[in-house]
Amino acid sequence: MGIFKGKVNRMLIFRVCAPVKVLRMTQSSPSRISKAVIPAAGLGTRFLPATKATPKEMLPVVDKPAIQYVVEEAVAAGLSDVLMITGRNKRPLEDHFDRNYELESALTRKGDAERLSKVQESSDLATMHYVRQGDPRGLGHAVLCAAPHVGDQPFAVLLGDDLIDPRDPLLARMVEIQEREGGSVVALMEVDPSQVHLYGCAAADTTVDSDVVRVTGLIEKPEPADAPSNLAVIGRYVLDPAIFDILRHTEPGRGGEIQLTDALQLLAADEKIGGPVHGVVFKGRRYDTGDRSDYLRAIVRLACEREDLGPDFRTWLRQYVTEEM
Ligand code: UTP
Fold this sequence. Notes:
Elements: H1 8-11, E1 35-39, E2 60-61, E3 64-65, H2 66-76, E4 81-86, H3 91-96, H4 101-110, H5 113-123, E5 127-132, H6 139-144, H7 147-150, E6 155-158, E7 162-164, H8 171-181, E8 184-190, E9 200-206, E10 212-220, E11 231-239, H9 242-248, H10 260-269, H11 271-274, E12 277-281, E13 286-288, H12 292-304, H13 310-324
Parallel strand pairs: 1-4, 1-6, 4-5, 8-12
Antiparallel strand pairs: 2-3, 6-11, 7-13, 8-11, 9-10, 9-11, 10-12
């Protein structure tokens, strides 16, 4: 699995502020998870100028905004209470999951039932809630904004720009592991060692389940030489609510942002705080739609595989590759 051991101690130099006195020192018992939190307040600078006035989560992947795939994934895993963390310029996210009566009545008048159902699909999907992150102070800070809504239950976090192919379910497996083991569960993916500096990276031990590891340490965007493994943290988490107390005391880390990875490192280092941290090692298809190349790959792949668009698109693509490449 490519887990390098023996470098874990170096990772214990993390940037969580020192006295975390108010931590809840009990492990919450496993209970049914019903709430999903989707942080979508980031600035999306990698996609400028497209994201100057449009949230990157609203960029279409074929004919649906990226964020709709993410909400559909939460619902497919049984989580229909969705809290989206938004910010300035993010109003289209709320509009997309709301009714649009004008459009609906125009389509009804035209008798266009097919498009009407597409318009209604996103507003009927889940119970949506929104909270604004005043200042985008990092992913950890975005997750902390969910505390009043989530309360004292384990909850899922799905990054709004991380797209997991619907045919490769990941979140349902993570929920299953959390309900069995308690504590928190992160999603991990093996990446080329040259890529670890782009991700949070886990030190981990194997378990009896071939797709599950016990996470013993985490480090945000390490240099390849400092990486404890090639297991990268990807944008799905099931978290014990103990994370909130840790985040309240977490100081800005890498990039001057409050890092979720730094808070998770504290959980992983001491299971008395919020139970164990496990990782589900994902081997399916995943796209970072906040990255331009991956975004293009997602569109080409999903378009090729669509029943309605795929046959024509594949013919064109084959021809294009033969003639132009
Ligand atoms: P990214 O690291 O992709 O940052 O955030 P970003 O600002 O969205 O994009 P770039 O790097 O400038 O292009 C990972 C996830 O965390 C959310 C983002 O919306 C994204 O889903 N996030 C990040 C917040 O909600 N708030 C923050 O303060 C930072």
